[in-house]
Amino acid sequence: MRTLCLSALSVLPCSPIEHIDAAYAAGVDAVGLRLCPALPTDVDVIGDASLRRGIERRLLATGLRVLDVDAIRVGPHTDVGTIAVLLAYARDLGASNLVFTSALSADEYRKSDERDSVRRIAELCDLAQGYGIRPTIEFMAYRGVSSLADALRVAAMVAHSNFGICIDALHLQRSGGKPEDLACMDPTLLGSLQLCDAPLAAPDDLAFEARCDRLYPGEGALPLCELLRYVPIDVPISVEVPNVAPATRSTMERAQKAVDSTRRLLAVARPSR
Prior knowledge:
Number of domains: 1
Strand order of the largest sheet: 1-2-3-4-5-6-7-8
CATH architecture: Alpha-Beta Barrel
Oligomer: single chain
CATH class: Alpha Beta
Radius of gyration: 17 Å
Largest sheet: 8 strands, parallel, barrel
Helix content: 25-40%
Distance between the termini: 13 Å
Structural class: alpha/beta
Number of helices: 9
Order of helices and strands: EHEHEHEHEHEHEHHEH
CATH superfamily: Divalent-metal-dependent TIM barrel enzymes
Strand content: 15-25%
C-alpha cells in the first residue's frame, strides 16, 4: 500500500498543529510540514521554540510521520550552512526529505550560474546526509530548474547519492512533460509524487495557479492515472491542493476532501510496476 501524505499547502493558511490534527483525522500516514515562511501567511516554525515543541508533541500523540519539510530555495549564492538549524529540527521530527527549488526565477536563470548552483546543491546534500535527510529538488516551469529534463541534468551534475527529485503533477504538465517521461529516469531518484488536478490549458499566471488555484484529484483533466503507472508503489504520494476558493471550509474539511479525492484516484489507478 502506498504511503499517503497531506502537504501543508493543501490546508494553509493554518498553524502546523491544525495541519497535523487535520491530517490525523483524515487518516493519512504522514504530513509535509512548512517550517520556513515562503508566503506572507506562513508561520515561522524555526523561530518559535514553543511551537516546535508543540509540533513534536502532536506528532508523537498522533503517530504521524513527517515525509518532508520545506520551503527552501537554493541558488548560486546560497549560504548552505544556514540551513543546518532547519535540518537539525527536521531530523528531530524524523523527516525523510527536504524539498527545495531553484532560488532563481526562469527569467533570472543563466546557464553560467548553473555550476555554482550545482556546487551549492552538492554542499546541501553533504550537509543533509549528516542529519539523515535527503534533499529533493522540485522543478517548476517558472523557476530556474523548470522541467524534469532540467532536474535530471542537475542530478547528473550533482552526482550525489543523497539527492532526489520531487515530481509535482501540475509542474510536470505545465513544463511540457508527460507521464511517460518518468520511464527515462532512475526510479531511485524519485523521492515523492505530489498530486493535484487542473485543466489541461495553462493559465497566464503559472505561479498563482500553483500556489492558489489547483483542483482536487479527479476534478480536472491531468493524466493522473497514467502518471501513477510510472511511479513505483514504494514512492510516497503527497496530496498538494492549494486553492483559495474553498477558504470558507475549515482546515479539517479541506484536508478530508483532499485525502478522499486522492484515495478515490488511487483506487482506480492501475497498479504501478
